[in-house]
Amino acid sequence: MQIEKQQKIFKQWLNDYRKLIFKVVKAYAVSPQDQDDLFQEILIQIYSAIANFRGDAKETTWIYRISLNTALTWRRNEKRKKFKTNILDIQDVPTTRNDNNDLSQNEQILNDVYDAIRKLSKSDSSIVLLYLDGLSYDQISEVIGISKTNVGVRLNRAKKKLTQLLKGLIDDF
Amino acid sequence: MTFDELQKNWQSQPGNFTLTIDSDILLKQVERNRRSFVSLIFWRDFREVAIAMIMFLFFSYVGLTEKLWPTFLLALSCLWIAGFMVTDHLIQKRRQPQVTEILTDCIKTSLYKVNHQIWLLKNVLWWYLLPPGISIAIWMGYIAFLEVSRDGISESIGWLLFISGYLIFVFFLYWGIYCLNQRAVRKELLPRKQELEQILRNLKNGDA
Question: pTM of whole model > 0.80?
Answer without folding.
Answer: no
